[in-house]
Write a structure and sequence with these properties.
Number of strands: 3
Radius of gyration: 20 Å
Shape: flat
Number of helices: 6
Largest sheet: 3 strands, antiparallel
């Protein structure tokens, strides 16, 4: 049995020290706007480059894919600069198990509503996969995400519980 099949081994993270969260929050208040401005500047540069890329793509089969991969890596790298930031709710509710349980129920419920929506012609199909980030279940543990998700019809997928819990909408396997 793989570890992801036994969510009882997924425990809640220990609460982080209050002073450390306060320092991170203070840094976040200053750093996050800088990251947002940097992200907007990078996005503007990518839009300008994409105008030139449009002229090249008709002549190259692989250029478009490489350009999109590079764009994804660059924007993802900019967003990773803010990965240590702490939000106000995280600062206030660190160690509050009930808050994190409610947060997990809300996030899984939102994904369930999206996945169980009826298929509308000429519209994208509802999502069948999702990933619940550690930020949402830190105080409750990955086992609680699995518990709530399994009760709502999701299946667990291979996942790194230290980052996220990946789920698959079980009803998507059935043919209508």
């Amino acid at each position: 049995m793989d570890v992801y099949e036994d969510p009882a081994t997924w425990t809640a993270r220990p609460p982080r020290p209050r002073w450390q969260l306060a320092l991170r929050f203070a840094g976040s208040v200053v750093w996050f706007p800088v990251v947002c401005v940097l992200w907007a500047a990078v996005m503007a540069a990518i839009l300008v480059l994409s105008l030139f890329a449009d002229a090249i793509t008709p002549f190259s089969n692989s250029f478009e894919g490489r350009f999109l991969n590079a764009t994804d890596r660059v924007l993802g790298g900019v967003m990773r600069l803010a990965s240590w930031c702490v939000s106000w709710p995280e600062l206030r509710h660190e160690g509050d198990v009930e808050y994190y349980k409610a947060r997990v129920e809300k996030v899984v419920g939102k994904w369930t509503a999206r996945a169980s929506a009826p298929i509308v012609p000429k519209k994208p199909r509802p999502p069948v996969e999702c990933a619940i980030a550690l930020r949402h279940y830190r105080g409750a543990g990955g086992w609680y995400v699995a518990e709530v998700a399994l009760a709502q019809g999701w299946e667990l997928r291979p996942t790194d519980e230290n980052k996220e819990v990946r789920l698959w909408w079980a009803a998507a396997s059935r043919v209508d």
